[in-house]
Amino acid sequence: MRLDKYLSQATGLSRKDIKRLIHKDLATVNGIATRDSSLQVSEDDIVTFQEMHIDAPRPRYFMMNKPYGYVCSSDDPNNATVMGLLIDEPRPNDLHLAGRLDLDTTGLLLITDDGQWSHKITSPKHKQGKRYLLETADPIPESTVELFAQGVQLLNEKHLTKPAQLEIIGVDEAFLTLTEGRYHQVKRMFAAVGNKVIKLHRDRIGHIVLDESLAPGEYRELTADEINLSR
User: Which of 88, 103, 133, 146 is 20 to 30 Å from 80 at the Cα level?
Assistant: First the structure.
């Protein structure tokens, strides 16, 4: 990693400010002063900045309980954004969503600056099941369980959906676990069998379960166990 990026991620200062301070002989790598912002450093190098030892920057991992009415975007002219809830975090623009939710869907969001980790979360190849708690307008027939397990034909799609696990927990309530993420998939699957989803909440991605203590809009760092469960 470049020295200026290393220091920016570790301190929260902008790379422009970091470069300016490096040129004032305020950085050393392995005891040697440098003005080279592009110098490649690793976590094994000993880096000091402004006479302070700087630990290697670490990737960040968060879970958020997405509120209703927020968009999964960093900028939207008409709606509040989930990324706007992270304004107190340093370098919020470096963070991205590992999977999105619709405006009217609530629940578990994973947010990180680790691209490889988020790819494992979102790629269908890794089959990270995503579980949704849903409510429908009409009762859910038991026959829907087998239909979803076989795959259903969505409007304007060439291929059936991948097998999905439906667990009916009430007349019009169920858990649905998917291993793919097509556009508005849950709503379209129920539309394909003549029903309508009126409430949708995601509570699990892979082995990571939404922390019930998080109020809508709140977030926390993932534990080491939660991070490693999805590696």
Answer: 133
Q: What is the DSSP string of the chain?
A: -BHHHHHHHHH---HHHHHHHHTTT-EEETTEE---TT-B--TTS-EEETTEE-PPP---EEEEEEPTT-BSSS--SSS-BSGGGGTTSSSGGG-EESS---TT-EEEEEEES-HHHHHHHH-GGG---EEEEEEESS---THHHHHHHH--PPTT-SSPPPP-EEEEEETTEEEEEESS--TTHHHHHHHHTT--EEEEEEEEETTEE--TTPPTT-EEEPPHHHHHHT-
Q: Which is higher by pLDDT, 65 or 78?
A: 65
Which residues are marked as active site?
102
Which residue type, as a one-letter code, is found at position 123? S
When mean pLDDT is compared over 12-21, 196-205, 222-231, the highest value belongs to: 196-205
Strand 197-205, strand 208-209: pairing: antiparallel
Instruction: Report the C-alpha dihedral over residues 165, 219, 229, 42, rounded to 10 degrees.
Output: 140
Please name the residues in contact with 31: beta carbons below 8 A apart, sequence gap of 6 or more: 46
Query: What pLDDT, in 10s, does the model give residues 191-205?
Result: 999 999 999 999 999
The pTM assigned to this predicted structure is: 0.83
Tokens (6 digits) for 34: 């440098």
